[in-house]
Write a structure and sequence with these properties.
Elements lengths: L3 E4 L6 E5 L9 H14 L1 E4 L6 H9 L13 E2 L2 E8 L29 E8 L7 E5 H6 L3 H7 L3 E4 L2 H8 L15 H6 L3 E4 L1 E3 L6 E3 L6 E4 L4 H15 L5 E4 L6 E5 L3 E5 L9 E7 L6
Parallel strand pairs: 2-3
Antiparallel strand pairs: 1-2, 3-14, 4-5, 5-16, 6-14, 6-16, 7-13, 7-15, 8-9, 8-12, 10-11
The structure holds N-oxalylglycine and manganese (II) ion.
Manganese (II) ion binds next to loops.
């Protein structure tokens, strides 16, 4: 069945997709249309979905193999393809409050960062707890020429360990959160990686800025202060209002984002509200 899309942003960087029930088996034509839509728009919003974990996994698999997150403490025990983000704990996973409240592209600290992620809002606050998305095609396109020249062909350093330490320093154990440590194997798999600051999207052929506040810690071949200052400027540039969409969640929303051309950031909410989400993540390629 053909899909129809309605822009949620002036630039049509985010669209609402109608005509697809994600719980049903999909034909090749629908998947091809969704793939094209993702290359074109970067964030696809599906409303009023009702998915079992098996159905979410099956739908996500149409776009590639699924990523099993290395921080396995958040994985659903019987379906490790699903990360459970819940402030009350759910599905056998301890509570996690507002884990992604910094600008990031999921798992950019791996050599092959994910293609994209699907986040399913099961129980969401009536207000607050929005997820912000930044258009990294737009961020690249609007960079001043001298900055474009400065970053073209350069690489940045991505690492999870500093972020992990920063998150750990916030003690949320009073909320029932688990203050777990990474084991040696996890630490080894989080060795820093280099990615081009400007990447070419393999499907759209467009250039996107590919650095993020959460996991990018320096610029290859630049001093620490200079690199961090440039990263700060790039982040400020990429998160200016015209490039950002704020998603106000309704229960049953599924948001499918392209991790190669966006960053996202969780926002706060009244912890008296329950917020439970399931994420599946699609494996990606080496950025170039
Ligand atoms: C994620 C994420 C943000 C949110 O699921 O990858 O960063 O608002 N979520 O929960
Ligand atoms: Mn995330």
């Amino acid at each position: 069945m053909p899909i129809s899309t309605k822009p949620l942003t002036a630039s049509d960087f985010v669209v609402e997709v109608a005509g697809v029930d994600l719980s049903e088996p999909q034909d090749a034509e629908t998947i091809a249309e969704l793939r094209t839509a993702l290359g074109k728009h970067s964030v696809l919003v599906f409303r009023e979905q009702s998915l079992t974990s098996e159905q979410q996994i099956e739908f996500t698999r149409h776009f590639g193999d699924l990523e099993i997150h290395l921080v396995r403490q958040y994985l659903m025990p019987e379906h490790p393809e699903i990360i459970v983000l819940s402030n009350v704990g759910a599905d056998g996973v301890k509570p996690t409050a507002n884990g992604g409240a910094y600008w990031h592209s999921d798992i950019s600290y791996r050599a092959k960062p994910p293609l994209g992620s699907l986040l399913y809002g099961i129980e969401v606050p009536p207000e607050g707890g929005n997820t912000l998305f930044a258009d990294m095609y737009g961020a690249y396109d609007t960079l001043p020429d001298d900055v474009k020249r400065k970053v073209e062909g350069r690489k940045a350093v991505h690492s999870y360990l500093e972020r992990f330490k920063a998150m750990r320093s916030i003690d949320r154990s009073h909320k029932g959160e688990d203050k777990f440590e990474l084991d040696e194997e996890q630490k080894k798999s989080f060795a820093p990686v280099l990615h081009p600051i400007v990447r070419t999207h393999p499907e759209s052929g467009r250039k996107a800025l590919f650095v993020n506040d959460g996991f990018t810690i320096g610029i290859d071949g630049m001093g620490d202060d200079e690199g961090k200052a440039l990263l700060r400027d790039l982040n400020v540039h990429a998160t200016r209002e015209p490039l950002v969409y704020s998603h106000a969640w309704r229960p049953g929303d599924v948001v499918f984002w392209d991790n190669r051309s966006t960053m996202h950031c969780a926002t706060s909410y009244d912890p008296a509200y329950t917020r439970t989400m399931h994420r599946t993540t699609i494996q990606g390629d080496t950025p170039y």
